Sequence to fold (365 residues):
Amino acid sequence: MGVELVGNILTPDGWLRGRLYFGARVQEIAGAPAEGPGPGPRIVPGFIDLHVHGGGGRDVMEGGDAPRAMARAHAATGTTSLLATTMTAPLPEIAAALRAIRAAMDARRRGEARVLGVHLEGPFLNPGRLGAQPPCVVGGDLDTALALSAIAPIRVLTLAPELAGHLELVRRLSGLGVRVQIGHTLSSYEEVVAALAAGASGFTHLFNAMNGLHHREPGAVGAALAHGDFAELIPDLVHVHPGAIRAALRCIPRLYAVTDGTAASGMPDGPYQLGAHAVAKCQNSVRLPDGTLAGSCLTMHQAFKNLVDLGLPLAEASRRCSQFPAEHLGLEDRGRIAPGCFADLLVLEEDLALRQVLVEGEPLE
Fold:
């Protein structure tokens, strides 16, 4: 039998008070079912962040060892696996960033979160809804997407479905197993419904960089609330008002948290880089010089605690930070504590402070 942890264990079937045995994967769970966690540590699945641009002072678009530095920074705050997320840029720059991501994927080092692949956020975006993305958009085509994915696997791709040719691109990519998300868009409600019918599976940073809900023009947000099954949301309480978060939680069954984290994540206030943009962190936000929000400095641990503070039970907050992101990627061996799953584990104190992080059974230190 492998390593042992004792405490309140969150399984897919609910809480158990008992013992967890594991190596790189969970081997056995022994204990008694419980209505909720009792005294002692809480053992929950490691967080999965499907939208993160940087951390620890480094930006994915730098290339080199930046993806590794980001993976280390976010592992320290409970993220055990992630998608390295690119910015809109000239295609050769995106390709260079993907080569560095591939190197981090192929040889994870102790202390790093597992890099599961790429979230390609652009360049197939609407130039009228760029947010903090640089103005380097191009029309999407399958050959370009496949060429980029051959460098490092694209697991999630954000696009604006209203642009010419993009509905067919949604069909082709989703047929190949890519999770296509609607974002940075000026789509109408009807255009989003058509994209979902074509295979789009989610929404990128719901509410942000998309046209909002109006009762006569529901737009992308209205379509998400009416029809979405999966959607990512940044619960830093800056990008989205708590009331809007609560509305989305009622409407979208598998709404899940992301950080949209930047180089400023885990760092003090000051200047940082986000792709081609200079940005500044001040307290709880990261912004361009004109005040536009530019990603975040959120960590998944803080996202989890924010969801709890909004009133979610621990088990539900955990699912929205671990299980649902895994389900969106079609992963059956991450995001949950069950025999055969990777031992991506967090040990939390009763006040939810982070006591220990294990990535595939290995403690960070």
Residues 265 and 297 are 4 Å apart (CA to CA). The chain has one domain: 46-335. The chain has ten helices and 20 strands.
